[in-house]
Amino acid sequence: HFLELGNLHKKYDTVKILTCLMFHIFKLIGSGAAAQVVTSRGTHGDYLTIQLGSALGAVFGIFVARGVSGAHLNPVYSLSLCVLGRHPWKKLPLYSLSHLVGAFLGAATVYLQYYDAIQTFSGGELLVAGPNATAGIFCSYPADHLSFWGGLVDQVVATALFLLCCVALEDQRNGPLPDGLHPVLVGALILTMGVSMGSNCGFPLNPARDLGPRLFTFVAGWGEEVFKAGGGWWWVPIVAPFVGGLLGTLTYELLIEAHHQTTPQKEKKSRRTILGSGFKGLNNTYSRTKTYEILM
Amino acid sequence: HFLELGNLHKKYDTVKILTCLMFHIFKLIGSGAAAQVVTSRGTHGDYLTIQLGSALGAVFGIFVARGVSGAHLNPVYSLSLCVLGRHPWKKLPLYSLSHLVGAFLGAATVYLQYYDAIQTFSGGELLVAGPNATAGIFCSYPADHLSFWGGLVDQVVATALFLLCCVALEDQRNGPLPDGLHPVLVGALILTMGVSMGSNCGFPLNPARDLGPRLFTFVAGWGEEVFKAGGGWWWVPIVAPFVGGLLGTLTYELLIEAHHQTTPQKEKKSRRTILGSGFKGLNNTYSRTKTYEILM
Amino acid sequence: HFLELGNLHKKYDTVKILTCLMFHIFKLIGSGAAAQVVTSRGTHGDYLTIQLGSALGAVFGIFVARGVSGAHLNPVYSLSLCVLGRHPWKKLPLYSLSHLVGAFLGAATVYLQYYDAIQTFSGGELLVAGPNATAGIFCSYPADHLSFWGGLVDQVVATALFLLCCVALEDQRNGPLPDGLHPVLVGALILTMGVSMGSNCGFPLNPARDLGPRLFTFVAGWGEEVFKAGGGWWWVPIVAPFVGGLLGTLTYELLIEAHHQTTPQKEKKSRRTILGSGFKGLNNTYSRTKTYEILM
Amino acid sequence: HFLELGNLHKKYDTVKILTCLMFHIFKLIGSGAAAQVVTSRGTHGDYLTIQLGSALGAVFGIFVARGVSGAHLNPVYSLSLCVLGRHPWKKLPLYSLSHLVGAFLGAATVYLQYYDAIQTFSGGELLVAGPNATAGIFCSYPADHLSFWGGLVDQVVATALFLLCCVALEDQRNGPLPDGLHPVLVGALILTMGVSMGSNCGFPLNPARDLGPRLFTFVAGWGEEVFKAGGGWWWVPIVAPFVGGLLGTLTYELLIEAHHQTTPQKEKKSRRTILGSGFKGLNNTYSRTKTYEILM
């Protein structure tokens, strides 16, 4: 009993550190792609390469940490699971904090790597709006045309669709995936969001990935404008994704998962096989919870 | 017997709802990509990102519903199967109606999500033609150079090729695919159509996906011009795909499927294995029909 | 014995017809992508979408016919095998003729589908050179900067690399591939050629794919200029690929295949397994030859 | 004993020759993509196609040689393994020299293939800087905005991330990959680097891939400016990747590999299975070392 508790404790720390690390990578690659296009004024990429960067950042973030942390990447996903009773509420704050810290550190690394480029591009002035703005490299701001309600709707719809697809990709009863295809499809999903739902406010989808870098830019010299811009936009990508995420997860539960015909017995077995081969770092005690823990 | 009928009924409803849902997603992502590029005047994507959106929309539409509905997505495909005697005619109207409703709802969601953007872009005027036209976000219109016969030929050729490839990807005897690759290849096929056969009239390929959103735009304020434009173009993408689809399916039947050398015995077995592992929601009574039901 | 001969004969015809068909599709998609970009003056795609079209055309060409014809696609590949003694010389003329006819028919279909677009774009004048040239949609012409020797070197180098990679992807002893990944990788290889070796003369790589459409344009109204252009360029993409193809195949044989450590016994077994599951239409009498017959 | 030595000797030569060959292909495709875009002044590709060329070059380089040489591609990776005690130090010089020679020959082939294009583009003057510069086709030069320290940081961060992901993709305990997906993911990783970390100095990441072509351009007519440019930039992409590579490898070791829960017994078995099927040319004596030898 004591031994198990000790192991659990050790595992908690690992998950915490790794989730940070993963976010680090995720942010680093995704924001790096934006930094590159913005500061090169479009000579080193275009809108598509930024989206490819976001997508591939997620792909390799998951590939790096999938064996150990199970690749928890999004507080929205964690919350959905808590509400559905498939994830302990007490883990939520720690996970969310790790996401936030990781995203903050990722933004800091991008700033370090693109320091010269950002300084040259902006003439040393770190601005949130205007032709030489650089704050958009790190977190989301609404387009000029977007109203408050429009932004809310955009984020609810986008996150609902995003989570619906995430849960579907996770659901082994809905159809299995070969080892190694799953992270690639999550990347494809993020690319999908970028090419289909990116022009209103940059598809934040993830409260931690948006707030962490915003806090970094606040500290690093962009100042309080990062919170004031867009009529106090900053809290929309924190609140709306939770609403959309719950909506998407519930939709999947009601429309798809409720209609699976396999018996739990059978299902449990097939799940264990797939998880057993693909995710060796996870112990298989709560197989139901596990499936949902893999992604996001 | 009664029990089975009851289950069938329940399954029918599920299929209906899910096909709608899938079309919803499909339309949402595909049209969203067009809305984004049009309303951002090309700053948030280009022709390729629109095609990527269409392709990825299909990919995730299939991934979400593949386990339950078998991913029926296109009335043309259903009709081809009916003609070949592999699908009951009585299911056709219900399926087609679900497609139509789903596509209508998908278009409505895109309009909701891009409402601010479309209003700002068009200055509040919902137009079908001209530099500020926005109707093309939702359904197909012919290019200026296209004659009536040219449009007919384009859609017959494109749908024939499309269905030929769809049926080939479905045919387990022609060569198996790993679980999870099939939806990705359908997406690649749609991308192929977009980059190769998109400039004449936007490759509708699918009567429901074209008519549903057209009805929505008619209702939502674009008015009767959506039916008048292009010399009454609207019925071409409804009729021509059926002709092309039959042509493509028959070509495959005659040139490829007729030449398979495996005995039905052997084939049945390999099919069951693949369907059994990949598509658990389907009961395997009519294995021949099933294979053809998976896609489109 | 008589029965077997009869079956072989039947199979020959099938291969012939299917190879034509495949080329048809292949050409149709690849040239369609070029027709779309050229006639839309770049509003419906760019250089990358043309290359994606070529690549995806090959992918679906192979997916359609892989189970029956084994996907012979390139006379260069067939000749290399004949020289190495792995393919009967007597089959070569029939195969090459099928390629040629298929490519001719593919070009005709593209012209049919894009007839209005080409007429509008060119003002009715079918030209080989100048800003309104449309001959480049169908077959290769050298860039202005390219000398005769430069074109020869370009095609030898490109075809050598192309065949080297084709043979490597085929070689099961070099490392197996999951079912269904092979056609995708051939597509990726063609994309590679397009982005890396396309600006000198459009990477023909394939004598039949170049000559067939050239003959079509000669007949369809572009006239004898299609043979005169580029200082009589037309025969370079017919001769040079054979030289490069042999070079690439031999390089692979000497550098890689000669160093495999598995015994023939072992190898034969693993090959049979993979072919047996993936390519059911092939009888496995001459397993060595078979492996090489799959591609190109 | 003597026999084994003889075999080892033979294998050494093979590895040497093949690594050269692979680099040849790798460079040829990657630099070819750059040559194509530069000399066509952007009509035959853009920034994305150059990155696709680099990525696909790596993919097919690995596919060609994976069965025999185990696809050693980067001296940084070899050095990391030596430091960690998993690779014999004495092999390092020979491997690195092969890399260098292969990259030199690859650059020479690109120059040969694009000789006419480069001469026409540059007016016969082989320049390192300015609008008609062509040296950037072959190796990396810093952007104007980049300071010395900025370049150092960029390369350390980029190589750390690159190696971290490489090692993660290699680590079978972290999650297996289907045969054939591994080379594709390495290509995706290189694409990631290109779209996210390419605008500061072109992500050299690899000392041999940068120095070999630089030596070629020095010899071929660009002169000593290739070493003087960017304030003597040439040695930064040689030294910084070693620092970053070690950092990335160690980070993975400490954060992920140290936390794997499988016993060595179990691990050894699963590794052998995967290597045994995928990489038949490797003898499995030191299974730990082997895993790390596969990539880079």
TrEMBL record, chains A, B, C, D:
Pfam families: MIP. GO terms for cellular component: basolateral plasma membrane. It comes from the Eukaryota. The keyword Cell membrane applies. GO terms for molecular function: glycerol channel activity; urea transmembrane transporter activity; water channel activity. NCBIfam families: MIP. This is Aquaporin 10b.
